[in-house]
Specification:
heterodimer; A: mainly alpha; MetI-like fold; 12 helices; 63% helix; globular; B: alpha+beta; Dipeptide-binding Protein, domain 3; 6-stranded mixed sheet; 24% helix
């Protein structure tokens, strides 16, 4: 069974009117159709451009630090960039975004902070989506007791005070050199990504479950079953491809949430190892210095805002492109 | 000292509990701005009246129980205002004689027997307590009561070790005696103190708040909360203290209204305090009618309030760097910022039993590589934060004996990597002699513990840079300050490098920088504060899981110095300091701290109290009260 592609909005009727064969009707793939719609959303396109730039900057942070600005994210310039009273100097030709309390380059910190944020956001999102999709598929497809059990688990997880638990877990595992759970969980970026990912899967699980509950009653599922396909095959070959669109859309929307979550944790000083640049950590440090070093808050705040906004714009654009019924 | 350490933390500043004896004020460097009228003149024309508005960012843990308090903030309030002791200080900076211990409730300096074991204090006549005990005169038995409480386990005293040299304290503490045999009230106005060993610094110990007199019966039933029922003897008392009713059962007594934990501490005049001759240290002062200490807020809030006159003085906390800069550079404001050495040292502590610091060459190399000037610049106030430290004991206790001593001096205190690498090349961990021990796993991810509060993470970043050329990488763990100290103080935690400790004197004698920091008796989680494990025995090292068979010890030198007195003792401790710096090398001392105070325009006659390392509040006069 092929992926269901029937969609009344796929192509406009030709001049001949409905039911009349038109020479202008062009067969397009799902990807082509998606792109035609997506590219009409200029905000989404701008978001993509920004994100591509951010990803390139994050990937090239080391190169930029070594070859362009010639200093690393944790390199301190206590005599060059702090005055006699210990106050940091602002933006200039050498330090484009100014320096922080330790005389570090805010620009380089932002580049490496982007790397931290994006790594954590992507890994945490991958974990959330993996768990959520799996749980949603199982609950929606099997229904009954399985659904009840999974749904209650979702309810429980959604009822948890996520930030507090995340803070507690990250603190408990992050402060001990040996980690926690017998060393199973080690301090570092992985810990933060895992903490975030473990608490954000219920949302996507609910969406997937709802979709699967509907899909499993469709004729093509019945057909597959009648042809002898097993549950695993039906789930993987028939159901999963048909929930791909909402998964993709939701994934793009969950990433900015996870970026903000990571920023909140690092703002609280939890989870990330010392000397790991992070936007939230930079904002935390900037709070006390805002009156005399506003650039310490301005730049990380701006980049955090723009990155989250870009992901949201891209997510909205993808949703509109994948589901024209919700188009603006 | 724990409480003191908490202040260092909370404030990141300079607080030092106590001060004292060295009257060599001319040897203490001060970076105070050009003399201000207020601090250098007695200003006899000042009028009493008005309210002194102060702030404390947190009073968490403050009890105002004289036996429990080991915190410079409360010591400053006790000395100026609430409690008088047999001996005390004049509430002045070191260069004004602020470390000289003087008779307070004692009518004259104590006399000491030829063998140094028996001290006699004559008590001032006619001094009474604050209401409701304004008719009760202070007697010798009241001091004995205070010291007995110091050794009563239920009272939870903070520093009984200073008085354990008094004969009979052990027996009393263990319940084997009803009284301390070494304390005798010869008559109402004569206290005799017998020691088990000579202690020339005893007058300083009797200037600490734990020895303040306690009237009969007032602590009954108040082991935990005597501070809320405190009977004052100084120029002030808690608001509402006159309503205390000690005739009622302890559970039925209402505490003072003026100590409202977490909200405000309000001090009002003690109407029974005798001025002039009866209190020679404070008699002509005590200008404010009321002292109001508001609790809470942030350093930034406090700075703004001091700027606009809503607040007169911040007791704890650090003034923001921009405020310090503004007050130092604006002519109209320069008279309101005061900078004094606080007799505290900040240092990095190396665990001499833990690789790679079990090799003295590595420890010396670390000393040479450390950018002390950089560490100072990262502290609030930058260069004003203090003087670069080249040895352990502060000038406030050694005078100028080691003024020119700098075994690891580098240009401008910025570190010398070449010299450090040359030293490292002699270490067993630098197997190829290239000045870096990166080839040795012991040099990788050295466990370094620091405070999570500013500026310590930034300092850790700088130190990581400093030591990278030596092949040493740090595995930095950040904790809240209390946890950090617990980690550093617990040998079993194997904390190799403790990056954020500080130490201040309890009184101006080098003994307070020796035994507590490097003595065997100060080792382990149940004691404090020998983080470097200097002097640990082979058995202790094995018990704590170290492979090192032995570590350097200074026990012999301590035994030599402790019984000495006066200049001879100071010289001995100066030699000990040199021994520590060159042979033992447990620390990288990097800063002799300054205290930076900024007051509102409402404060006249600011004075610094070298004993507590904070303001001498009794001398603060209120501008609005002047005619």
């Amino acid at each position: 069974m092929a992926t269901v592609t029937a969609d009344p909005g796929i192509s406009a009727p030709g001049p001949g009117g409905p039911g009349e064969a038109s020479p202008q009707v062009v067969g397009r793939s799902l990807g082509q159709l998606f792109w035609r719609r997506f590219r009409r959303d200029r905000f989404a396109l701008a978001g993509v451009v920004f994100l591509v730039i951010m990803i390139l900057l994050a990937l090239g942070a080391g190169f930029i630090a070594d070859n362009i600005v010639h200093h690393g994210p944790n390199e301190t310039f206590v005599r060059e960039r702090l005055n006699d009273f210990g106050l940091p100097k602002g933006p200039d030709r050498a330090f484009w975004f100014g320096s922080d309390n330790a005389g570090r380059d805010v620009f380089v910190q932002i580049l490496f902070g982007a790397r931290t944020s994006l790594i954590i956001a992507f890994f945490a999102t991958a974990l959330s989506v993996s768990i959520g999709v799996l749980m949603g598929l199982v609950a929606g497809y099997y229904r009954g007791k399985v659904d009840t059990f999974v749904s209650r688990v979702i309810d429980v997880v959604m009822s948890l005070p996520v930030l507090l638990l995340a803070v507690g877990l990250a603190a408990a595992c992050g402060l001990q050199p040996q980690g926690c759970l017998g060393g199973l969980i080690k301090p570092g970026l992985g810990l933060v990504a895992m903490v975030i990912g473990l608490f954000n899967w219920p949302y996507i699980a609910r969406i997937v479950r709802g979709q699967v509950l509907s899909l499993r009653e469709k004729e093509f599922i019945e057909a597959a079953r009648s042809q002898g396909s097993g549950n695993l095959r039906i789930i993987s070959r028939e159901v999963l491809p048909n929930v791909a669109a909402p998964i993709i859309v939701y994934t793009t929307l969950i990433i900015p949430n996870n970026i903000l979550f990571e920023a909140a944790l690092s703002f609280l000083g939890i989870g990330l190892p010392p000397l790991t640049p992070a936007w939230g950590k930079m904002l935390d440090q900037a709070g006390a210095t805002f009156t005399y070093a506003p650039w310490m808050m301005l730049y990380p705040g701006l980049f955090l805002f723009l990155t989250v906004l870009a992901f949201n714009l891209v997510g909205d654009g993808m949703r509109d492109a994948l589901d024209p019924r919700t188009a603006r | 000292m724990r409480r003191y350490l908490k202040l260092l933390a909370l404030a990141g500043v300079f607080t030092i509990v106590a001060a004292a004896c060295n009257t060599g004020g001319d040897t203490v460097t001060t970076t105070t701005p050009p003399p201000t009228d207020g601090e250098t003149t007695a200003a006899p024309e000042l009028q009493r009246g008005g309210t002194l508005n102060m702030a404390m960012l947190s009073d968490d843990g403050i009890t105002y129980d004289p036996q429990k308090e080991y915190y410079s903030v409360t010591w400053s309030v006790f000395r100026c205002c609430l409690l008088r002791t047999l001996m005390s200080y004049r509430g002045a900076a070191a260069d004004e004689g602020g470390t000289e211990v003087l008779p307070d409730l004692a009518a004259e300096p104590p006399t000491v027997s030829a063998d140094g074991l028996t001290w006699t204090f004559k008590i001032r006549e006619g001094v009474t307590y604050a209401p409701p005990l304004q008719d009760v005169e202070i007697t010798a038995q009241d001091f004995i009561r205070a010291l007995e409480r110091e050794f009563t386990p239920e009272a939870g005293a903070a520093y009984p070790f200073y008085y354990s040299i008094i004969e009979g304290t052990d027996a009393f503490n263990e319940g084997e005696a009803d009284t301390i045999s070494g304390l005798t009230a010869v008559d109402d106005k004569t206290l005799e103190v017998k020691l088990t060993t000579p202690a020339g610094d005893l007058p300083f110990r009797f200037a600490m708040p734990a020895t303040a007199p306690i009237p009969e019966g007032v602590t009954d039933g108040h082991d935990e909360d005597y501070g809320r029922f405190l009977v004052a003897s100084g120029p002030y008392m808690f608001q509402g203290a006159d309503l205390l009713d000690f005739t009622a059962a302890p559970a039925d007594q209402a505490p003072v209204a003026g100590f409202d934990p977490g909200r405000a501490h309000v001090l009002v005049r003690n109407p029974s305090w005798g001025e002039g001759e009866s209190d020679p240290l404070r008699g002509e002062f005590a200008y404010a009618d009321e002292i109001n200490i508001a609790i809470g807020g942030t350093e930034e809030d406090a700075a703004a309030k001091i700027d606009n006159g809503e607040l007169d003085y911040l007791i704890d906390g650090v003034h923001p760097a921009d405020q310090v800069q503004r007050y130092r550079t604006t002519p109209d404001l320069q008279a309101r910022i005061f900078i004094h050495p606080s007799d505290a040292v900040r240092y990095l502590s190396m665990n001499v039993a833990s690789p790679p610091f079990d090799d003295v060459h590595v420890r010396r190399s670390i000393n040479l590589a450390t950018d002390k000037d950089g560490l100072r610049r990262l502290r609030p106030g930058g260069e004003l934060a203090g003087e670069i430290a080249e040895h352990i004991m502060v000038p406030g206790v050694l005078g100028d004996l080691l003024a020119d001593y700098a075994p690891y001096a580098t240009a401008n205190g910025q570190g010398d990597i070449e010299a450090a690498q040359a030293e490292m090349a002699q270490s067993k961990y630098d197997t190829n002699g290239d000045g870096s021990c990166e080839e040795s796993p012991e040099c990788n991810n050295v466990l370094a513990v620091t405070d999570e509060g500013d500026p310590y993470p930034d300092q850790a970043a700088l130190l990581s840079e400093n030591y990278a050329p030596l092949g040493i990488t740090l595995d930095i763990k950040q904790f809240d300050r209390g946890t950090m100290y617990d980690k550093c103080n617990d040998p079993a935690s194997h904390t190799t490098f403790c990056l954020a400790p500080g130490w201040g004197k309890d009184y101006a004698n080098a003994t307070t920088f020796a035994e507590p920091l490097f003595g065997n008796a100060s080792l382990g989680p149940d004691s404090c504060c020998n983080y470097a494990l200097v002097g640990a025995t082979a058995e202790q090292l094995a018990e704590w899981g170290y492979d090192a068979p032995e570590v350097p010890s200074i026990e012999d030198k301590l035994a030599e110095c402790n019984p000495l007195q006066g200049d001879e003792q100071t010289q001995c401790f100066a030699e000990l300091d040199q021994l520590l710096m060159e042979e033992v090398v447990p620390w990288v001392p990097y800063l002799f701290d300054n205290n930076i105070d900024i007051v509102s325009e409402n404060v006249l006659n600011y004075h610094f109290d070298q004993f507590a390392g904070l303001g001498a509040y009794e001398k603060f006069a209120i501008a609005s009260a002047q005619a």
